[in-house]
Request: fold
Amino acid sequence: ENKHEEKAADPSGAREETPAVAAMGSKTWRELAAELKLFLWNPEERTCMGRTARSWGLILLFYLVFYTCLAGMFAFCMYVMLLTLSPYTPTYRDRVAPPGVMIRPHLNGFNIAFNVSQRSTWQPYVDNMHRFLQAYDDKVQEEKNIECVAGRYFIQGGPEDEEKKACRFRRSLLQSCSGIEDPTFGYSRGQPCILLKMNRV
Reply:
């Protein structure tokens, strides 16, 4: 009871203790910098950021082994998947947006209908064939493309911006459907030529 009475009687003493307690809990910038420096390197315990050299070595060794195993697993998976791919044949051959095979002549669809006795019905097909085969003239192919060896894959190398070459396909190889001997491609005789063109899919 006497202690409580003394505290009540002397309120100034309590006021003097409050700033002292607050001062003990606060730290200056110099003290914080000293603590940070001690955290980065403690010469007494010989620790760096709270760990000894042995502890840091074990952690680094663990992560080195861990990420090496991850990289090895990734490389092994890529190697196994690449073994299933062929550079010459697509793995999945399904219906795609650009068709693998097209026909010529191709005007307003895949239906070809005409009357032999009426030239106007089959002349558009003949004109379409001539326009398509202009790029396969023998002289054009000799200038633009290269001669390839039969039975051997032709690999196009070189930088990306370099103009790519293709194997020569001469128009004369089509024989009676080349339009050289018969300019009407057989449409005037009711025996029309229809070309199948394979696209690069």
Q: What stands out?
A: Residues 101-147+169-198 form one domain. The helical segments are 2-9, 11-25, 29-40, 53-83, 119-133, 138-144. The first strand starts at residue 101 and ends at 104.
